[in-house]
Specification:
Elements (H helix, E strand, L loop, with lengths): L1 E4 L3 E6 L2 E6 L9 H16 L5 E6 L22 H14 L5 E5 L2 E3 L1 H6 L4 E4 L4 E3 L13 H9 L1 H10 L2 E3 H7 L4 E2 L5 H13 L3 H12 L2 H20 L2 H12 L9
Parallel strand pairs: 3-4, 4-5, 5-7, 6-8, 7-10
Antiparallel strand pairs: 1-2, 2-3, 8-9
Length: 260
């Protein structure tokens, strides 16, 4: 059975595992609408007692190239309200109680990295790349990443990713704990579904209770952190460096930043 949520999201069910596929070509950029549809789909899965684990995947080359901050119809085109609305949906994602396995086939950049970190586990293809590239745009990290990334890989490695904006390949991510398994591209979805099935075969009430204990007040912590991130992003969006960062991204070159 396949269910559509909006134009860019489908959910299929196989046994106790739901597979959610994002298909928003060419780069699966997140939008408020897409994140709302995703949150709706995951909350529906929470309410379905037959679903015990979720696979989050996407079509195309990139897992998710982040939020479109620079085009004329991008998420920040009309000011910072769109970004704050995006973070409202992010909190809904972190509030989901069903375990999630992400299948990452390519770039998970910016908000795309944030989306990958919504999941409990990440199965990645060798071609996967993880990047918190906000400083290359003259911007502050968002999507709760300043909370979730250090929690996953430690403060030192998170700082390295945040302050350099470098891309971390799948094998390095595996050594860091950012990735849980690396498999060939052609076996990626099956491997993620296999891990989700391994979770789903266990007692669901025990899995949910254990996950709640491990995650603690994660959604509330993300909400508090996105409030801070949004405030910093609002300040930086008004700078000359951000304008230069936008131009640099559009022109595919390093930014010539002046610190103002």
């Amino acid at each position: 059975m396949k269910t559509a949520y909006g134009d860019d999201l489908t959910v299929t069910l196989d046994g106790h595992v739901a597979t959610v596929i994002i298909d928003r070509p060419p780069y699966n950029h997140v939008s408020v609408g897409l994140m709302r549809d995703l949150a709706d789909a995951l909350e529906d899965a929470d309410r379905d007692n037959n679903i015990r684990a979720i696979v989050l995947a996407s079509a195309g080359k990139a897992f998710c190239a982040g939020a479109d901050l620079v085009s004329s119809d991008g998420i920040a085109n009309n000011g910072m309200g769109g970004i704050n609305a995006l973070y409202d949906q992010a909190v809904r994602l972190f509030s989901v109680e069903t375990p999630i396995v992400a299948a990452v086939q390519g770039a998970a950049v910016g908000a795309g990295l944030g989306l990958a970190l919504v999941a409990d586990f990440r199965v990645a293809a060798p071609e996967a790349r993880f990047s918190a590239n906000f400083v290359k745009l003259g911007f502050h990290p968002g999507f709760g990443l300043t909370y979730t990334l250090p929690r996953l890989v430690g403060e030192q490695r998170a700082s390295l990713m945040f302050l350099t904006g470098r891309r971390v390949p799948a094998e390095e991510g595996l050594a860091w704990g950012l990735v849980d398994e690396v498999v060939p591209q052609e076996h990626l979805l099956a491997a993620a579904q296999r891990l989700a099935g391994e979770i789903a075969e266990n007692a669901p009430l025990a899995v949910t209770a254990t996950r709640k204990t491990l995650r603690g007040e994660l959604a509330a912590a993300v909400r508090a952190q996105t409030n801070h991130e949004h405030a910093e992003q609002t300040i930086l969006r008004a700078t000359e460096d951000f304008a230069e960062g936008v131009r640099a991204v559009q022109e595919r070159r390093p930014g010539n930043f002046q610190g103002r």
